[in-house]
Amino acid sequence: MPADANPSGDIFGGWLMSQMDIASGTYAGFIAMGRVATVAVNAMTFHLPVYIGDEISCYCQTARIGTTSITVDVETWVRRRPNAHREKVTEGRFTFVAINDAGRPRPVKG
């Protein structure tokens, strides 16, 4: 059994959540023009299982920009083999804080 799967062959939800955190953190970093740190997973909904062999894609959009924070909505879709059928499997909302070189909050813009 692969390390990121449960005994039923479904991908472990924690692994999927980490991929969403990476994707939304990268997205937030571009908006903040620098480093960001995850401060909250505000919501997470698992609609369908992800299986070994599924190809996932994470899509991000800005939900809110505050003084030092950025909230990002993330959807994860799978392409299932062999027919390449696409389905939304997970959605979540992540909040990040823009940080300076000392790891302290800084304004998102400026």
Description:
With 110 residues, this protein is α+β, with helices and mostly antiparallel strands. It has one domain (13-98): Thiol Ester Dehydrase, Chain A (Roll), CATH 3.10.129.10. The chain is 18% helix and 44% strand. It contains one helix and four strands, in the order αββββ. A hairpin with a 4-residue loop joins strand 3 (69-80) and strand 4 (85-98). The longest helix is centred in the first third of the chain and has 20 residues, at 13-32. The mean pLDDT is 95.
In brief:
This protein has 110 residues and is α+β, with helices and mostly antiparallel strands. It has one helix at 13-32, and strands spanning 36-46, 55-65, 69-80, 85-98. The protein has a four-stranded antiparallel β-sheet, with helices on one face.
Instruction: Report the end-to-end length measured between terminal Cα atoms.
Output: 48 Å
CATH topology descriptor: Thiol Ester Dehydrase, Chain A
The CATH homologous superfamily: Hotdog Thioesterase
Q: What is the quaternary state of this protein?
A: single chain
Q: What would the principal axes of the Cα set say about the shape?
A: elongated
Could you tell me the mean pLDDT?
95
The number of helices is 1
> What is the correct CATH architecture?
Roll
How much strand content do the residues show?
Answer: 35-45%
SS elements, strand count = 4
Question: Largest beta sheet: what is the strand line-up?
Answer: 1-4-3-2
Low-confidence stretches: none
The biggest beta sheet reads: 4 strands, antiparallel
Q: Which secondary-structure class do the elements indicate?
A: alpha+beta
How much helix, percentage-wise, in residues?
10-25%
